[in-house]
Amino acid sequence: MAAKNELLILAEYSQDKIHPVVFELLNKGKELADKADLTLSVLILLPEKVDLSELIFHGAEKVYYIEDSAFAYPDEFLYKENILSFLKEHQVDIILTGASNFGRSLAPRIAAGLKTGLTADCTALDIDEEGNLVQIRPAFSEKILAHIKSDTRPQMATIRYQEFKKGSTDKTRQGEIIACQLKRNENPNLKQIKKLSNKEINIAEADIIVAGGSGVKNTEDFKLLKKLADLLGGQLAASRDVVDAGLIAKEYQVGYSGQRVKPKLYFAFGISGAPQHLAGMKEADTIIAVNTDPSAPIFNLADYGIVADLYQIIPEFIEMLKK
Amino acid sequence: MHIIVLIKQVPEMDKVLFDSEKGRVDRKSAGVEVNPFDLNALETAVGIKEKTGAEISVLSMGPSRAEEALKEAVARGADNAYLLNDQQFAGADTIATSASLAAAVETIGDYDLIIAGEMSVDGDTAQVGPQTAEFLNINHAAYVSELISVEEDEIEIKTSLWQANYSKTFTYPLLITVTKDINTPRLPSFKDKMKARKAEVKLLTFEDIKNKVKIDEVGFKGSPTWVDNIVVPEEISRKTKVFTEEEKESAYKKIKELLIEKNLMED
Ligand SMILES: Cc1cc2nc3c(=O)[nH]c(=O)nc-3n(C[C@H](O)[C@H](O)[C@H](O)COP(=O)(O)OP(=O)(O)OC[C@H]3O[C@@H](n4cnc5c(N)ncnc54)[C@H](O)[C@@H]3O)c2cc1C
Ligand SMILES: Cc1cc2nc3c(=O)[nH]c(=O)nc-3n(C[C@H](O)[C@H](O)[C@H](O)COP(=O)(O)OP(=O)(O)OC[C@H]3O[C@@H](n4cnc5c(N)ncnc54)[C@H](O)[C@@H]3O)c2cc1C
After folding, report:
1. Do both A164 and A221 map to the same domain?
2. Where would you find the membrane-spanning parts of this chain (chain A) (predicted)?
3. Which of A70, A72, A101, A137 could form a disulfide with A47 if both were Cys (CB 3.0 to 4.6 A apart)?
């Protein structure tokens, strides 16, 4: 019997850990691989020896790795050279990878190198009756959902973080961990690469977000929102207009050209509710908006709204919480 | 230095309507504009031009009306404009778009830097930049939020990858895709707009680039992906309970209850 083709997950290893989207992809990938009769495998490029058994415990049947110190840095050119060389030796039907900045920068190069189709930023996946991958993704600034199919193999897609549930660890699962050949570890046209700073804030994973928009008048006033966020054990965030105005750093921006968030509770203070802002937070469990303008669009999406001045509401609410 | 900026014309996103029954984008419902991120790409090029005297070419693949987008780019500081336009290019996905753009870039000639937007606001894929670089077999840097330095023989950029900020220094040629944070595009003056109306847009057809790309690599035939179906989701609108200023005390109470209910606060 011929060996089965593979469903390969390209795993991002960054900041000394496997990106959590990989475990979500393993869970979804297992379901798809069963349906399409494929072997579930992972390819990971690493700068150092790492225990990869966790990938097996989450469902991978094969884990391939390429180890070299060059992979301590996000150099798309080296990654794609090595991955393309790996793929020459493997029969892969489906390639899935996380839609992080790095994933969205690397995957297109691999797809172009293979001259195969790539669907961006998927939020849902399925296998149709013919065994093809149905790739569902938002487009037109998140206004529609497109169902995309590919004629070529492998079918490739980048997948958003936190769309699929992570499965459970099962330490009895068996699988192979296989070292693979390095093709290349030098990029002659990249003269230097260095890390400038880590992103300290990670609003994407917060349970509570306290966001401020142009209703907040200056940097100093964001401290008021921060106070509330700290009190609730939440995270501060912002609309783009205040980021553009220089009141707060880009890392805090929620929306289409910022971060997507799915907290349990989202506070919108002085945010009008432009479509590009909603694109980043409309999936929050509960939305609470405070705005002086009763006709602000944010009130159409919010679960609870208070038509009032944020400068009055926040201090009073803090006092009331402290009681 | 020669910089090529990739410009896409897109529907005005705040106006465009969707037919939820037929699952279609009603493109006639809105006008067109330059993809907002591409204005940042162009401004980046103009910034370099002002410092070093670089020459800027803008390139778009699209229908004839995309000429307007290119003329706007000239008004904003581009020197040469190229429109890649042919029935053969219709129906292109990102692979076919990138293969065609790469062939056009090679036809235009020597270049040092190519600048694209982070993504388009209609297709939204962010794939055309990196794929064009792959077809040209050059390096690329995506999500560039700052040019740290631009020299004759090398360029240092800032990009955000792996939950961190990195600086990368490349020799040319290089392709970068830029985020909105890199600059604030300036508006063209009335005089520049008038001048640009007369600007010549050079037309490139398949015939002009056929030495660089095969016919079955462009347009519909060169596109492995296709849109099987479009679903227009119901606008999310929740049952909103609105409190007036006078009712704020009951709002506080409600929110406190919510926090407890969601286990986000101790009773
Ligand atoms: C390509 C593109 C990408 C974009 N990406 C994003 C993105 O990622 N994120 C994003 O947020 N935006 C994004 N935008 C911008 C977006 O369109 C809006 O301009 C922006 O979200 C508006 O920010 P805002 O709500 O803070 O400001 P405004 O729209 O000015 O709203 C301020 C609100 O505050 C209220 N207010 C004023 N004073 C008070 C007070 N004292 N108390 C209570 N309320 C008060 C006002 O009534 C008003 O409703 C993007 C736009 C484009 C074209
Ligand atoms: C609903 C829908 C979903 C789609 N999903 C996919 C998909 O998942 N995969 C896929 O391969 N195709 C997809 N397509 C097709 C894709 O949108 C087109 O190929 C499009 O022409 C280019 O992709 P983009 O708009 O995503 O550009 P992006 O890659 O997002 O654009 C990035 C930058 O590339 C440059 N650029 C892009 N297009 C042009 C151009 N025509 N001329 C000059 N410069 C340009 C601009 O600088 C732009 O800022 C989809 C189309 C639709 C309508």
Report:
1. no
2. none
3. A72
Q: Residue A271 is part of which domain span?
A: 203-322
Closest CA to B82 of B115, B104, B114, B49: B104
The tokens describing A94, both together, are 């489906």
Contact A117 B93 (CB under 8 A): yes
The pLDDT value recorded for residue A111 is 98
CATH class of B2-222: alpha beta
Distance CA B233, CA A139 (A): 12
Residues A175 and A229 placed together within one structural domain of the fold = no
Give residues 91 to 110 of A whose Cβ lies within 8 Å of B. 100-102, 104-109
Dihedral sign from CA coordinates of A116, A119, A120, A122: negative
Q: Is B242's CB within 8 Å of A317's CB?
A: no
| Same domain assignment for residues A131 and A28 | yes
Query: Which residue in chain B has the smallest CA separation from A112?
Result: B131
Of A139, A164, A179, which marks where a domain is finished? Answer: A179
Residues 26-65 of chain A with CB under 8 A from chain B are none
ipTM rounded to 2 decimals: 0.92
* Protein residue with its CA nearest to atom 48 in ligand 1: A272
pLDDT of A232-254, one tens digit each? 999 999 999 999 899 999 889 99
Summarised one tens digit per residue, pLDDT across range B69-81 is: 999 999 999 999 9
3-state secondary structure of A13: strand
Same domain, A77 and A155: yes
Q: Do A117 and B95 touch (CB under 8 A)?
A: yes
Are residue A175 and residue A230 in the same domain, yes or no? Answer: no
